[in-house]
TrEMBL record:
It comes from Microbacterium suwonense. It is a multi-pass membrane protein. This is Nitrate ABC transporter permease. The lineage of its organism: Bacteria, Bacillati, Actinomycetota, Actinomycetes, Micrococcales. It is found in: Cell membrane. SUPFAM superfamilies: MetI-like. Residues 81-265 form the ABC transmembrane type-1 domain.
Length: 281
């Protein structure tokens, strides 16, 4: 029987260091995130108490947080949240489908890419909020006006990502599939779709947050039902605590949506190397 070599002090210290690093990798983001929130609240409290802005316009964080949780008992609050999320969902789904379909069609044809390049490069830098006056005139304070702003802002994000995905198909692999005699459907399934999906889901994830921002902005300016309209009403009624609590609600929704989009992206792309690289060995 072979006797194992004795463990040296250096090896023990190395193992202990690795254990500490693994433990910090698990709890570190939570600790740092909590510390960041606490620091922000302390800074807010100090600025509200000693800063140049009156408490009439900048309430203390404790008042806002109390109102934030108090809103959970109000039916009107949930109606506003529901209206915003419905517009967010519809706008995101329509822009994702339209961007994917047109992106695949345009990206698959060199002629269409060249023919549409100038138009796309001209339209996509135009901010969606610039369309708010047009949407208000065309539809009034209706859901259609809100959707016009959301879809315009999110569509080009998904479209550009899809175009990059189609263009990133490996040329050698493409020629290999042609040599193997694969038809269009087989090439799309085994070559184009696996290359395209990471780009597409990145576009959808980015659009998920953009859609919420544009939904609240459109409600705030156009007056369609939702969180933005409630913020405007609180401001007009001179209720800064309620107004800040609704703004905090929009921020919390943004965190939830962004986290959900990241989880959905990792679930859908579990097979891709970019996701597998995140899984610790």
């Amino acid at each position: 029987m072979v006797t194992p070599p004795p463990v040296t002090e250096t090896q023990v210290l190395r193992v202990a260091k690795t254990v500490r690093q693994d433990r910090w990798a698990q709890v570190g983001p939570v600790v740092l995130g909590t510390a960041g929130v606490v620091t922000f609240l302390i800074a807010w409290q100090l600025y509200a108490q000693f800063g140049p802005v009156s408490n009439e316009y900048l309430p203390y964080p404790a008042e806002v947080i109390g109102q934030f949780f108090g809103n959970f008992a109000l039916t009107s609050f949930w109606a506003s949240v529901g209206a915003t999320l419905w517009a967010w969902f519809l706008g995101l789904v329509i822009s994702a489908i339209a961007g994917l379909v047109l992106g695949v069609i345009i990206g698959s044809s060199r002629f269409l890419r060249r023919a549409t390049f100038t138009v796309i490069e001209f339209l996509r830098p135009i901010p969606s909020v610039a369309l708010i006056p047009i949407a208000a005139l065309a539809f009034g304070p209706q859901l259609e006006a809100e959707l016009l702003v959301i879809i315009y802002g999110c569509f080009f994000v998904v479209l550009i990502q899809t175009l990059y995905g189609v263009a990133d198909v490996d040329r050698v692999a493409h020629e290999t599939t042609l040599t193997m005699g694969l038809n269009w459907g087989q090439r799309a399934r085994h070559l184009v779709v696996p290359t395209l999906l990471p780009y597409f889901f990145t576009g959808v994830r980015l659009s998920a947050t953009i859609s919420l921002i544009l939904a609240v902005s459109a409600e705030l300016i156009i007056g369609t039902p939702g969180l933005g309209q409630s913020v405007a009403q609180a401001q007009l009624n001179g209720a800064p605590v309620a107004m800040y609590a609704l703004i905090v609600t929009a921020g919390v929704l943004g965190i939830i949506i962004n986290t959900g989009a990241k989880i959905a992206e990792r679930k859908a792309l579990f097979w891709h190397e970019s996701v597998r690289a995140e899984v610790p060995a």
